[in-house]
Structures are given as structure tokens and as C-alpha cells.
Amino acid sequence: MRKIPLCIPEIDEREIETVSNVIRSGWLAHGEMNKKLEENFAKYMGVKHAISMNSCASCLHLAVEAQGIKGEVILPSFTFVASANAIVKAGAMPVFADIEEDTYTIDPKEIEKLITDKTEAIMPVHFAGQCADMDSIMRIANKYNLKVIEDSAEDIGGEYNGKKAGTFGVGCYSLFATKNMTTGEGGLLTTDDDEIAEKVRTLLGHGIRKTTYDRESMKKAWYRSADMAGYNFRLSNVLAAMGTVQLDKLDDMNKNRREAASIYNDLLKGNKKIKIPFVRENSYHVYQMYTILLDESIDRDEFVTKLNENGIGASVHFAPSVHEMPVYKDSKRGSMAVTERVNKHIVTLPIYPKIAKEDIEYVVDNIEKFTK
Fold first, then answer.
1. Where do the catalytic residues lie (predicted)?
2. What is the pTM of this model?
3. 194 shares a domain with 306
4. CB-count exposure of residue 180 (10 Å: 0-12, 13-18, 19+)
């Protein structure tokens, strides 16, 4: 049977050689390659600061904590639970808003309905490689003097009106194995604010302002005094090395994802039982995922199971929605009508930079068979 996984990271001899060189160097902890990755990522995004960490969840956590946010943060429930967890663990309160019918990103109209005197921030989640409506979100944030933290885990390299995802507010990106670029596990935070950057860098390394690598050139390299109670959210030099190569390949990998999505679109657009991804006119979609929405007459779970049984690594993002999880069932929220409808019928299909056209055709043939 043909096997088509949901995602395959694009890794070749360049990553292997770069990582091997770091291992041979003996410097495995946070080091020179972190600095290179951070400098190159900041340049790519057009921001002052990029800071590497062990996960996007850690980035989100410190984006909240470093800004002293302790009140309510409005975000979509249609997201991975890490978005809400970061808010809670940083000492703030999540408030869930509904999503747009077409893009599945947070609905600005629903955000404004939920703003109270306790609201301190908005956390839009860019979905599957496409930005939320950042013009509207920034207008709301400016109107009510709210901070903006972009969960850009799924949108590295995506753009909204020519501006990179994650560069409107504080950006948080995932380097997990399924993302547009990967280090296996990892994350990056971006900001133009020097004070936020300084605090984040300190918090991620036990509250110590200078890293081990930075202290190597100091007279008392062993002197490690903490200025605040921090965490160990550091990314290793080994993984950062892989990230430097992945970043060099990012635009080409995203181009290939877009070409794969175009093939899916052409083959699926005539199927009346599914809805293919909607793309905003002002959006550069990088297809971290390719999702379809099934007609309500089709049992989504049975559909995904049938695809899986035929060797197709289809999945679901996201079910359940966060507000439906036991830990968040009593959380404050607005109407979840669109969220609850979408999470019952959405399906994620295999997509990755080197997916073969023949594999896409096989996926589509099975979709046609199971949607008759």
C-alpha cells in the first residue's frame, strides 16, 4: 500500500554537516549557532531582535510575562492548547473568541465584543500558514491600548499586506518537526522593543543576563548572578545549527508548499462536498497545513479513518477546540458557533515541500471515492 505521511521535514546533507560540525566542536549548549540563527532570523523578518528558545510555547509564555500582562488575553479557541497554557502559566487569563467563517483565524468583530477593563492583550493565532486580519486587529489594539502577541507557530514566512507574520506585535514561531522550518523542537520570539528583548533573554536563562557563551570572554566567566527568577527555556547550539540551514532554505520550501497547495486546489475545486482553503487577497499563504472543510453530510472521523486505512496520513487540526477541554471548560468566552462547526468538519491533508504530484493525486482520488 502507498504510504503518504502528513508531513516530512526537508533535511539533507547541509543540515547533517552543519550539525556534525557543532557536535565535533564540543560546544553543545546555547552558543555561537544560536547567535547566528537569531541574527539571520531578525534580518529575514525585518525586526531588531530574534530570540531562540526550546519551543514556541516558551516564546508565548515569555511574551506574556515579559510584558507584565496579568489580566485578560483574548485569543481563539481554535488553536493548539499551548496558546492558552502559555497565558495561564504566565499568570494571565485566557478569553476565547470565535473565528472567521473562511480563514479560521480569530474574528476581529468577536474580539471587540469581549473587551473589558480587564483586557490587556490580544493573541491572534495565524492558521495553517495564513495571517489573521492584522489590520483590523491592530486598529482594535490601538483603540483600546492593548498589547498584541502573535502566535505565528504555523506561519513562518507568511505575509499580510507585504509584512511578515509575527512582526505586527511580539511574534512567536514554532520550529517543531511539522512546521515550515524545523529544528525538531524549538521556537523563536521577535520584537522591536529593546526592553522586552532584554527581559526575555534574561528570563529564558534562569534570570541570568549573560549566557555561558557570552561569559567566556569575561574575566570571571564563572560568575552567574540572577537578576530575576527565570527558567531554562534555552535552545541548544546543536538544534540552532540545524535552524540556520533551514532558514536559508525557507523561501524555497514555502514556494514548494504553495505549488503543492495549487495542485490540490486544481484537483479538488470541482468537488461540491468539500471546501478548499480560502486565501485573503492581501495574504501570502505558506501552507504549513492544507485543510479542507467537509460537507455536514459526511462523517469527518469516519472520513479521516478511511484515508488513514488507505495509507494517507490525514489528521485534524484542531479538535477538540480549547474551550471544550476539561481544563478550560469554565473559561470566559464569547459565541463559539463557527469554531464548533469548523472543528467538527475540518480535515488536514498531507503537505510538505517535496510531496510528489502523484501522491497528491492519490490523496485526491481517495477523497473523491469517500465523498460520493
1. 179
2. 0.96
3. no
4. buried
What are the pLDDT digits (tens) for 67-80?
999 999 999 999 99
- Contact by Cβ (8 Å): 131, 283: yes
Question: Looking at this protein, which amino acid is placed at residue 98?
Answer: D
Alpha-carbon distance of 84 to 332, in angstroms, equals: 12
Give the integer Cα–Cα distance in Å for 52 and 14.
21
Distances (CA, A) of 280 to 23, 110, 128, 288, 342: 44, 19, 13, 16, 18
Chain centroid to CA 221: 36
Residues with a catalytic annotation lie at 179
| Domain shared by 168 and 122, yes or no | yes
- Domain end position, chosen among 193, 222, 248: 248
Query: Mean pLDDT across the stretch 162-190?
Result: 98
Residue 123 and residue 270 share a domain? no
Determine, yes or no, domain membership for 3: no
Cis preceding-peptide flag for 320 (omega within 30 of 0): yes
Torsion sign, CA atoms 64, 65, 68, 69 = positive
Question: Domain for residue 2, yes or no?
Answer: no
